Each structure stands twice: as C-alpha cells, then as structure tokens.
Fold:
Amino acid sequence: MKPPNIEVIHEDDDIVIISKPSGLLSIPDRYNKNLPSVAKMLSDGRSEVFTVHRLDKDTSGVMIFAKNAKAHAHLNQQFQNQKVTKYYLLLVVGTTPERGCIDVNLTVHPVKSQMMATQKGGKAAITDFETLKHYHNYSLVKAHPHSGRTHQLRVHFSHLKHEIIADPIYGTHGPLFLSQFKRKYKPSSAKPERPLMDRLALHAESISFKHPGNHNRLSFEAALPKDFRASIRQLDKWT
Structure:
C-alpha cells in the first residue's frame, strides 16, 4: 500500500514542520525498517533529518523535524525544559467537565510493556483541558499537555473515564458510527455500516516554540483531517 502524502507546512535551513497523517509511523519501526515513516520519507531528497519528538502512529497533526545537529540540540532542550507549547483536539466518550487539570503520574505498565499506567511513583504528567462542545454521549476537547510522556493524553483521559474514541489500547468503545447517535438511523442489512472514525480520535492541532536559529517564537497549526471533520460535522448535525 502506498504511504499517504506528507504536507510540509514550513521549511527553512534549520527545521521542517509537517502535518502527519494518521496511520503513518513517526520514526522507522525497530522490527521492520521497511515500513514507511515520516522520518524516512523526509530524509529522501534532504541531506539530513533529525527526529525531535514523536506522535503515535494513529495520531495526526503537526510535527517538528530538525535539519542539522545544532537545531536538533536546541529543540531537544526546549522540549526537555517544557518550553514547547502543544495543543491537541480529542473526541472522547461521555460528557467531560467544562475545563480541568489532570495531574496523574505515569509509568510503564507493570505487565504490558507497550502500555503506560497511572502510578504515584511514576513520572509527573500534567494535562490542562477545556471542553469545546458536548454532544449526546461524546465531547470535543482541547488539551494542553505540559509534559510529553508516552501516551499521556490517552492514559489521562482513560483515567478520567472519558476514553478517546477508537483507542485500540486504552479504550473499550471501538470506532464511532453514525448509528450510535443518529436517531432512527438503521444501516442496511445488505451493506455493513462504515465507521465515521475508526482510528484514534487524537489530532495535534498546534505547536509553538523558539526557532533554533533566530530564536523568534513561532507557531504552526495542522488542519483537521477529513475523517475528524466529518465526525464533528455529523455530531453537530444529529446530537
């Protein structure tokens, strides 16, 4: 299968800002180097590309890559010192509070190494959020993680009992279907209903940081993908 196209939002001598599509790895898979990834695709035609941060495979949205070692070190320091501001959009199950702060430590799951878990002795993780809109049994949320722990938003909202739609690891509700909220809607028995959203409903909307060269504060946004927009449009219409 041909990998999806990567939209380059901005590029200069030091950085590349892209909008990552859902379903594409951020970096090469450790077990199968032949799988397509953003880092590998950006390396084609460029002398060097350095990974600064990652998004989960099914997460879409804005990412930064460095084009030289100096820029890479400068950006890494900003991430480590929590000087990079990131906002995410999420579709979650249930009616969330209007706003809140999730301050719950995270650590590697004691049994399942590919998962994270909440634990008092884990690493500090803080997420501020506000609810943009409530639907019948879903909420559109904007989240600002102050730390960048693995799966932070997925675990934090699962901890709140408001799992992200179609989360295959931390969720139990599965994909989003029109029949779940459109009254009197009955799918045809001859044709199975297609989900509106069958991947993790998490999108990295914006990122703000200091340019590693001139130190100016920059902000970039990635537009919502088609499936996310379609889901919101249907929720707006029928709930």
In short: The mean pLDDT is 93. The helical segments are 38-43, 69-80, 152-159, 226-238. The CA atoms of residues 166 and 182 lie 18 Å apart. The chain has one domain: 7-238.
